[in-house]
Amino acid sequence: MTLGLTRALRAGALCLIALAPAGVRAQQPVRTGDFNLHGLTAADFPRVTKLAENVYAFEQIDPTKRTVTVNNLIVVTTDGVLIAESQGTVDNVKRLVAEIAKLTPKPIKYVVVGSEHGDHTGGISAFPAGVVYLAHPFSAPRIKQPTEPVTDKRVIMLGGTEIDVLFLGRGHTGGDLEVYLPREKILFMSEVFSNRIFPSMANGYPSEWVAALRKAEQMDVAYFVPAHGFVDSATVMREEERNYRLALERIIAEGTRLHDAGTSLENATAAAHFEPYDGWTRAANNAYAALKRVYMELDGQLK
């Protein structure tokens, strides 16, 4: 879609809203991972959304991808704060810390490294001294801070709040960690789930990734929180978590079809049919690497 067409569509939508009778709900934002298409601008970020009492999501534009957000879960308790995920730059971590200071004077006690990738860990050094960092052993060597290991599950009781740090299986990386609040029924999924962003599978484990999402769906969860893409309502997030799994399953199915037909990896992207997920944010960037990992899994090259 061209920029001019995008602007025209936005203008048309605004006219329809202006002409709508009183009491008619305004048109909902487009479901997308791109803030430009979501009716937002860079000036709208960072933003903090309350998910439950003393639980918040933090969204900040990812400087490496420019149009999508990197998200955090903030859990405030009487004994301190736990943060799920870091940010990709020192400046963005400083903004995160500043927003937390508006919510509570309590110190940051824990940071959970959900994803080892630089767009989530590049600014980790900017957290205050004394923070305990939790990471899966697979990811720990890539983190520029000492970490305590979580290989399966670690339960943290902080100010009377139970916080479960989980490893649901290999997905986006070999060491993805999730954070679950059983009382609030909130699950921060790190990069195992991104909202309306074509799966980035360059380091992923396709079939195991789907299995991890299915495990999450069997849990008592009211609110699925993604690492990238907007944190919308609980209902929308439930739908989009399922959509994300369906996108992964479609990629695996297409990769398997093309692999079994003898299609070379170089020609696979052009021959693949990803509809309707080919319209998701960053599809053109991520499709080749996704198919490559499917081919590698089918060839027994993922260890």
Short description:
The protein is α/β, with parallel strands linked by helices. 32% of the residues lie in helices and 20% in strands.
C-alpha geometry: globular
Uncertain ranges: 1-26
The number of strands is: 12
Largest sheet: 7 strands, mixed
The structure class reads alpha/beta
Number of helices: 7
**Whole-angstrom Rg:** 20 Å
Q: Looking across the biggest beta sheet, what order are the strands in?
A: 1-2-3-4-5-6-7
Distance between the termini: 40 Å
| Helix percentage range | 25-40%
Element-by-element helix/strand order: HEEEEHEHEEEEEEHEHHH
β-sheet strand percentage = 15-25%
Give the mean pLDDT. Answer: 91
What order do the helices and strands come in, and which of them pair?
Layout (H helix, E strand, L loop, with lengths): L2 H17 L27 E6 L2 E7 L7 E9 L2 E5 L5 H14 L4 E5 L5 H4 L10 E4 L11 E3 L3 E6 L2 E6 L11 E4 L4 E3 L17 H13 L4 E3 L8 H27 L4 H7 L11 H16 L5
Parallel strand pairs: 4-5, 5-6, 6-7, 11-12
Antiparallel strand pairs: 1-2, 2-3, 3-4, 8-9, 9-10, 10-11
Account of the 3D structure:
It is built from 7 helices and 12 strands. The chain is an alpha/beta fold and 303 residues long. The N terminus is likely disordered. The termini are far apart. Strands 1-2-3-4-5-6-7 form a 7-stranded mixed sheet, covered by helices on one side. Helix content is 32%, strand content 20%.
